[in-house]
Amino acid sequence: MSVLNVPVIDLEPWFAGTPEGKAAVARAVDEACRGIGFLVITHHQIDPALIRRVSEASRRFFALPLAEKRKVDRPRDDAVRGYSAVGEEGLSYSLEEAAPGDLKESFSIGPSHVPDDDYHRGPAAGAHFEPNQFPAGIDDFQEAYEAYFAAASHLASELMRMFAVGLGLRETFFDDKINEHISMFRVLSYPAQTEPPLPGQMRAGAHSDYGSLTIVLPDGPGLQVFNKAGQWVDVPHIPDAFAVNIGDLMMQWTNDQWTSTLHRVVNPPFDDAMKNTRRQSLVFFHQPNYDAMIECLPVCLAPGEAPKYAPVSSGEHLTSKFVKQTTFGGTKVSA
Ligand SMILES: O=C(O)CCC(=O)C(=O)O
Ligand SMILES: [Fe+2]
Predict the structure, then answer these.
(1) Ligand 1 site, residue 262, Cβ cutoff 6 A
(2) Which residue, judged by its Cα, is nearest atom 8 of ligand 1?
(3) 283 pocket-lining for ligand 1 (C-beta < 6 Å)
(4) Domain map of the chain by residue range?
(5) Which ligand is the nearest neighbour of the Cα of 207?
(6) pLDDT digit string (tens) for 163-217?
(7) Is the CB–ligand 1 distance for residue 209 below 6 Å?
(8) pLDDT in tens, 246-283
(9) Rounded to the nearest whole angstrom, what is the distance from the C-alpha of residue 265 to the centroid of ligand 1?
(10) Is the predicted pLDDT of residue 291 greater than 90, yes or no?
(11) CATH topology of domain 8-330
(12) Is 167 within 8 Å of 299 (Cβ atoms)?
């Protein structure tokens, strides 16, 4: 029986480090990734004080007048750095007819303190190590964002180790494929809705994410997942716990044994003023090294089965998504 609801998995036994504890966590993670593609994790070792710092710095930024925020506007479609305003991105729209843009604004950064060498700055690196930009005059903004990026990167590498064990690989299998990762950290602000949304307009339309995995910290409910029974189910909201989901790249790596699941952020009920508040989420999109090859893992190939996807590098996979649309984390759907 497939997993139809998002499980809550306590990572404490993983970090305690006994072989039995680690195996049990990896088994639970594997089951979640096969069944629903989402899990909620507790005892993840990210300091709640750091979550608070980055959340508060973000609140101060999003409260600025639009003209101020526009001073750090995202420079280009393929360079997701800085600010994107409400309605500028739509995660879900049909190929024929664009739906209204998502009711969210965002601020994004990539890796910082990038070495000035050919691997990071040469032509093969493309825009993957594009410099970050930060707003002036907000205390602790750059420091908090960079510290959160580092902490989330570390947690992502532990999750990739759980993935490896869960898939029956050696624990360090993914280590050398993510040691120069080209991830993105983005804070999303969903404003309080003072007018009813347009038909089809949501906080974030239905989409799947691109990369290896996404680590989400929402400050309230609204995130929903489309399960294998065809129902939209709520992701349990536990303060300071992370929702984790796998992206399209992990689904390709596992030859569809793991699922990159459609998800969305629904609007608050419009007639309930108490619930119609601003929502903010911290979203870390983990993406392997640009030259890591994503090709069917032999452990995911049953006898007689063929790989479903041609091998592709992580960088090419990401860039191909940018060509199709102008947002970062999601693959649009035509449903
Ligand atoms: O804000 C959220 O809870 C999730 C956002 C999301 O799915 C995305 O940006 O890809
Ligand atoms: Fe997403």
Answers:
(1) no
(2) 329
(3) yes
(4) 8-330
(5) 2
(6) 999 999 999 999 999 999 999 999 999 999 888 888 888 999 999 999 999 999 9
(7) yes
(8) 999 999 999 999 999 999 999 988 776 656 789 999 99
(9) 7
(10) yes
(11) Jelly Rolls (2.60.120)
(12) yes
